[in-house]
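User: Round two. Same drill as before: sequence, then structure, for each protein.

Assistant: Same drill it is. First protein:
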Amino acid sequence: MRILMLSWEYPPRVIGGLAQHVAEISRALVQEGNEVKVITAYDEHSPAWEEDEGVEVYRVPPYHGRPLNFLSWVHQLNFSMLEKGVQLCRQEDFDLVHAHDWLVAYAARALKHIFHLPLIATIHATEYGRNGGLHNDEQRYISDVEWWLTYESWRVICCSQYMREELERVFQLPGDKIRVIYNGIRPQAFQVSGKDPAVRDRYAAPGEKILFFIGRLVREKGVQVLLEALPLLRDRFPVRLVVAGKGPYEEELHRLARQLGVDGQVAFAGFVDDYTRNQLYAQAEVAVFPSLYEPFGLVALEAMAAGTPVVVGNCGGFMETVQQGVNGLRAAVGDPVDLARQISLLLEDRELAAKIARRALADVEEKFSWTILARQTEALYRKVVFSPEARRWRRELAPSPPQAGEGRPFMESAPAPPSRYEREEKVPVS
């Protein structure tokens, strides 16, 4: 199949877990014999076009001028994505468009109607879930665009049963329109052949036990809970918390560490490269991800693949991937006392930690292979593309076939659906 993928981030531009997901599923789809082209945002350290393990990656800059703000940047990015998408669609016949999250909704929806391509969307998280509700006009706007993308999509993929329930509840999305396909992992990408003492010396003193967190520094990742747990741990263990990642909550975390008097036990590493990340996984006693909201939690699989025991927040997708006392430990959400208790169990009982780490690695290799997940994704593609509804839609609505070399012509766009705040009935399946 020929797939056109839209994503606002793609390695080496990595803001969160979405970038790695899009890269891995695209590579795995290519390995299964499909053709995948990805349109993504420009990155000054990467070429405008490259081939990544068979995936063709096109990077486009914001359309024109300097964006006024983040939403302005999103709109300009969509103009550029649409321009590149039209160019590619006129060069060859794609079977479908696959959009990842609301930031590419405008371009994806336009390509769907211009070229009569079925649209699949993956919703990695919702604005409602990230913020525990919608509290201002910008959040309500983003949520409405998310709903609109699910409305326009023929099918919607999410990464956990938890996210399925959230989509049904928040967007009133029909269950038969949703398909749960877990995130995956490439274990060897997070494993090291030996430990590099220079990396450890950079972040921790000899004898200190490393606790490792990596992720975007936003409130819902719960790093503040981990900081609050540190005073309960340092009296019993010589611990050093290494926090890797950047984000809008970083300044608040620095302030909280000083306020709690634990800034001497915390190393804020900022963005780290893959080598450093893997060394920190390998040299950490425990990887800790105390999320308050987590649609899936790919970082837990990364730690499992690296052979590092994990403690996670008892929420969202973590509840489907981490079994308490079997392949990891779970702490009550937002509770620093319970978080310290779960970490202490692994620091005290290294036999338990090793047993959990061995089982976690086995689970990662058996359950979360990108090859398996790519086959599930391709099966959904085929179900949509070759459905009677898709055949009828393209036959009845498409104009007469283009002449050789012309590609598909432009189509008049279908009318916009009603706002989800105005409608009362369920959205259609396609």
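Second protein:
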Amino acid sequence: MCEKPMAINSQEAKIMLDAAERTRKKLTIAYQNRFRDDALMLKEACNDGYLGDIYLAKAHAVRRRAVPTWGVFMDKEKQGGGPLIDIGTHALDLTLWYMNNYKVKSVSGSAFHKLKDQNRANMFGKWNPDKFEVEDAAVGFIKMENEATIFLESSWALNTLDVREAMTTLCGTKGGAEMRRHPIEGKPALHLNSEMYGKLVEIKPEMNSSIPYYGSQEVTEADREARQWLEAIIEDKEPLVKPEEAYVVTTILEAIYESARTGKEVILN
């Protein structure tokens, strides 16, 4: 089990895939947001066809001012990039997983370096503008082989009030879904929408706030992630996060950076 992102570029990710195949060892990437209550329920809805054919999606990874000031997060050479590769990777993983679509046709994107000097109101304290080498925000436009489209937005610093991280919006032929935050509790909330008997309908499932687990403890996404990984090893199961899926995420992120650098669309096969 490796931390996200899978690698700093697709070439290194491919080496990991090849090593797993050659050694016949299991490999997974820690995309823990798949194990949230709202995420698991939405996946079940997608598998059941509640949304129909998902053809348009938005992957949200937007912070207003939350630039990580520790470690190597702002070091482009060591980190590979900023919010796109750091938190955009989570939102993109969720979106592709729900769509069950990993065949990418083309990618275009933009990366912005605009707010490096606006460091006074940061959640994690002031950062050094001279060491802020990565983008503060980036967006991507991804078209799949079946013409389904994904818009990916990511930021550590952006003048916006629409703040969402590791969430997605899905639009299908039968219905839609939107991940948000509960306005009071701040916990992830799921909104489903569809048409019923000639009327527009919105459903807001009640997410369980806790599940009893060994007494007073609660089951978290980290607990679920660890449990399924151990079961994958002990019972010889396939892990929930397949390395081939994580590889596609890496190739898309890499293509967005390349498109931002060259100003051109990147064609993938």
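The chain has one domain: 10-267.

User: Perfect.
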